[in-house]
Write a structure and sequence with these properties.
four-stranded antiparallel β-sheet, 563 residues, FAD/NAD(P)-binding domain
Length: 563
């Protein structure tokens, strides 16, 4: 039988993969998309307003799964089950701690993400020219700005125009209203010269492109059953399917990129999750969008006579330049002026709706003891569970009265601190360990650098100053930041650049070595910034997808020579 050859194979259906699938299908290309897990049914799989007391374990989850979490595994909750990987598909080098939450469901982590959607700025793209650290991006802000605009208009981002050099303004829906504690913290932040502004969040405050506005149930990170915030299963994949050009294969765990006799990509080999049978699918072009670490894992495992160290790795940079966001609770306390006030469901979006955008090193690249800068997400109010329960003495009715009196008052400050690229932070393939599908595991080498730790120290003082200036009581701050990987914002393992000797892809996400192999996730990013990466993943994936379309029009992709 003749082998069916698709125009493009896309590995992954998250932000980068979803945008590539939609864009390429709408251009008339036949696309086969591979996803490692199942599709979700919002009516069955999401929280749907269930409360903790409706569940067997009161929302805390099965104790057996919690034991895995204590070992560094982030798994299913009682609200959303069987979509997070239960086995470790990675190992860590000596001295490395890493948490890698992997969502296998169609749409990946876009089903449950925090929705912060700020643009990268000019000072991010040319940071190296400003502070002398590492290298500039091969793309200028002016070039990517139109793609940011198109993505914002496509998915709907709520915010305000803020006129800050570190945070370019975009095209926004009306912002979410500040809550009482936000107004108090904003006043305190102003006193100490720290910005406190509406975040840019991909959550609908008005109807948009057939999607309803948010109804403020606070269930966001358990999945939105009405599609009121951006996820690929709600916003992108249905449009791709409507073209008739998409074949989506679920439970398909990609093992490696296959090649022809010339070393070009010929397709993907994958294992069916349920049967464990192995299959191959063929395409004229391959798009890797499996996530930063998984894309690196698949490409490093794609070894052949042409590519003894992994496909498209003549530079030796595949898996290198791993960066992450240092997350940590820089300050936690309460606002006594809110004691005894009426309770109100402040967790309307299940995450912060405000942010303290980067304010450090804006006038001079080394005003502080560190280079570049970080941002902070403040949050508080009447969370579903009163985290301060163990700080209150008493028992019975007096304990309950004090719990209720304090309910509107808690506030926390979570940092988002970018790591600098380091030669010691990278991934490779473990020479021994394999997962249950016989796929060699990735091995992670990572430590926080001095620059990140200096920012962490600075953030703890700055957040304490904001809280105390607002009249709040500082109760605690984390001694150590969260484990690396906690943010789920890792970037850099297939870094883009103009020089094939020092980068994996060119400025369009096309691998230097293999002309029909492209990367459309955060692994192509040159470095980490103080912003979350998802909006930029969408923008760069849109740009790369249109570049792929142009290669098809010009017929410049290599012809496949199947064995």
């Amino acid at each position: 039988m003749s082998k069916q050859i698709y125009d493009v194979i896309v590995v992954g259906t998250g932000a980068g993969g979803g945008m590539a699938i939609k864009t390429l299908c709408e251009a008339g290309l036949r696309v086969c998309a591979l996803n490692s897990g199942r599709a979700l049914d919002p009516a069955k799989d999401f929280r749907n307003h269930r409360m903790p007391w409706d569940l067997k374990y009161r929302g805390f989850g099965d104790p057996k799964l919690r034991q895995h979490a204590e070992a560094g595994f982030v798994g299913d909750t009682e609200y959303v089950q069987d979509v997070w990987e239960r086995e470790f598909t990675y190992t860590t080098a000596p001295g490395t701690s890493w948490s890698w939450p992997r969502c296998s469901a169609v749409g990946g982590k876009t089903n449950f993400w925090g929705r912060s959607s700020a643009r990268f700025a000019d000072i991010d793209f040319r940071a190296a020219s400003l502070d002398g650290q590492d290298v500039d991006w091969p793309v200028a802000y002016e070039e990517i700005a139109p793609y940011y605009t198109r993505v914002e208009e496509m998915i709907g981002v709520a915010s305000t125009v803020q006129n800050r050099p570190s945070n370019p303004d975009g095209h926004y829906l009306p912002p979410m209203n500040f809550r009482c504690f936000d107004m108090i913290l904003q006043a305190g932040a102003k006193k100490v010269g720290v910005p406190y502004l509406p975040d840019r969040i991909a959550q609908l405050t008005v109807e948009h492109d057939g999607h309803p506005a948010c109804h403020f149930c606070g269930d966001c990170t358990s999945g939105c059953e009405v599609g009121a915030f951006f996820s690929t299963p709600w916003f992108l994949l249905p449009k791709a399917a409507a073209t008739g050009n998409l074949e989506l294969r679920t439970n398909a765990i990609a093992t490696n990129v296959t090649t022809d006799q010339n070393g070009n990509a010929s397709g993907i080999r994958y294992v069916d999750r349920e049967t464990k049978r192995e299959y191959e699918v063929y395409g004229r072009a391959v798009v890797m969008a499996a996530s930063c670490l998984e894309t690196a894992r698949i490409m490093l495992n794609s070894k052949s006579g042409h590519w003894p160290t992994g496909i498209a790795n003549s530079s030796g940079q595949l898996g290198r330049n791993l960066c992450d966001h240092l997350y940590g609770t820089a300050a936690s306390g309460y606002l006594p002026q809110l004691l005894g006030q009426a309770s109100f469901p402040d967790n309307v979006s299940d995450s912060s709706i405000a942010w303290m955008p980067r304010w450090q090193n804006l006038n001079h690249p080394q005003e502080e003891k560190f280079v570049r800068g970080y941002s902070v997400y403040p949050d508080g109010g009447c969370w579903e569970f009163p985290i301060y329960y163990d700080q209150i003495e008493g028992f019975g009715s007096s304990f309950k009265r004090e719990m209720k009196r304090r309910y509107p008052t808690p506030v926390t400050f979570m940092t988002q601190i970018p790591s600098l690229p380091s030669a010691s932070n990278f991934v490779d393939i473990d020479p021994v360990a394999k997962d249950s599908f016989a796929i060699p595991k990735i091995r992670i080498h990572f430590k926080w650098g001095d620059n990140e730790l200096q920012m962490w120290k600075h953030a703890k003082k700055a957040c304490a100053d904001v809280l105390e200036s607002a009249g709040g009581i500082l109760e605690s701050a984390a001694d150590e930041p969260e484990t690396p990987g906690y943010s789920q914002h890792e970037i850099g393992t297939c870094r883009m650049g103009n020089d094939p000797k020092s980068s994996v892809t060119n400025r369009f996400g096309q691998t230097h070595d293999v002309a029909n192999l492209f990367v459309c996730d955060s692994s192509v990013f040159a470095n980490c910034t103080d912003k979350t990466p998802l909006l930029s993943i969408l923008a760069f994936s849109l740009r790369t997808s249109e570049y792929i379309m142009e290669q098809f029009r010009r017929e410049t992709l290599p012809r496949m020579g199947l064995r």
